[in-house]
Automatic annotation (TrEMBL):
UniProt name for this protein: Bifunctional cytokinin biosynthesis protein
GO-annotated molecular function: hydrolase activity, hydrolyzing N-glycosyl compounds
Region (Disordered): 1-44
InterPro entries named among the record's database cross-references: LOG_fam
Classification lineage: Eukaryota, Fungi, Dikarya, Ascomycota, Pezizomycotina
The gene coding this protein: FCK1
One Pfam family from the record: Lysine_decarbox
GO cellular component, as recorded: cytosol
A Gene Ontology biological process term: cytokinin biosynthetic process
Length: 178
């Protein structure tokens, strides 16, 4: 869902703290999450609904020893999933991949990859900075697909970028490029 939709947590958890087993393969290893890293326009809605969905996803992943490959953001839902999963399972379970042009949005407008430090490993796991969005998406997909059978992609509420990344993954799957 692009934005403003209902929380995905009920469908993931079927209204409980136990996730539905995958009909395709229960050995999901490292799904890629694509979510918005933009600060919320109405913090109370995001904090109360969407942020809890992000934490719920991380708790479910931790309970099933599922690792995370994500877009490298430290704010918004993207950062919340990463922070929560690292707090539950440690930094080796998370790998963020961020294009250098987005570093300024994560660490302020005057930041660049030469002078800015990466997000704290102990808080966000491993971070890799790449040259552009195409490289980011290709590296994330490659890492997810090299995981255990059943590895997959997850999208939480976000904006146009989230929708674009989700549709690209769907297209790769249809064309057999994944």
């Amino acid at each position: 869902m692009a934005s403003g939709g209902a929380s995905p947590a009920p469908s993931i958890l079927n209204g409980s703290s136990t996730p539905n087993p995958s009909p395709l393969n229960p050995d999901i290893n490292a799904p890629l999450t694509s979510t918005s890293d933009a600060p919320p326009h109405d913090p109370s809605i995001i904090k109360n609904l969407h942020m809890e969905a992000a934490r719920s996803l991380a708790r479910t992943m931790a309970a099933h020893n599922i690792h995370l490959v994500y877009g490298g953001g430290t704010v918004g839902l993207m950062g919340e999933v990463a922070r929560t999963l690292v707090s539950l399972t440690g930094p080796t379970s998370v790998h963020g991949i961020i294009p250098s042009p987005l570093v300024k949005y994560e660490r302020g407008p005057d930041s660049d990859t030469a002078t800015s430090s990466l997000p704290a490993y102990e808080t966000y796991g491993r971070t890799t900075v790449v040259k552009d969005m195409h490289t980011r998406k290709a590296l994330m997909a490659k890492e997810v697909l090299s995981g255990a059978p059943g590895s997959g992609f997850v999208a939480l509420s976000g904006g146009y970028g989230t929708l674009e990344e989700l549709m690209e993954v769907v297209t790769w799957n249809q064309l057999g490029d994944s």
